Fold:
Amino acid sequence: MTACLSITLLASCSKKNDPQPEPVGEIKVRAVNAVGGSVSQDFYINDMKKGTQPVAYGTSSEYFTVTSGSNVFKFYNAGTTTLSGSSQNYTVPIGVNVTAFYLQAPNGQFGVLALGDDTAVPAAGKAKVRFVYFNRFLATTSVISVTTVGQSSPLIGALGHLLDPNSQVLSYYTVDPGAKFKFAASGITDTPEFDAGLVAGKNYTIWIDGTSSTNLTAHVIVQN
Structure:
């Protein structure tokens, strides 16, 4: 899987041919294992292993500080030289925080997909949350809706699969601390209410996968 993603705060996979050298500085990158049933993963940036603990399914690593510019992200089965799907090269600007997901596409391929993280502090007394969706048991054309518990209208009417070219994962939503969420999609019969434990002053990514084509499961990552 070699999808190239141009997301807010994250440049595309290719770099312009500029005769002037690009300035360099620090960026921060962390890894998330989003493949249910997978073995724990070792995370590499530019062929250098990051961290001492492998990343188990449903967990994320700490942020690792590396140099901006072109960076190659890879996942290996923990303790081995077995590459878990293709590597992916991203050009990341100075000062950006990035989350790199190890995931599996509906066609069975494994790969890496990275998103830039919003670290700006939310409004006083509020939290910010972004939703990304990739249940590998559903086609990339499927969509889900996200509703805040206690509200009648959806927070997001149609959230596309992360690997769908039309998927929109740019937006962060300002919500109240303690907000809980429900997810719905065609054919989904099992989607428990999700309490992310949101607190004021924090930014979050909630990523949604599932164990089958009828199930949706949510996971939360704190970004700041």
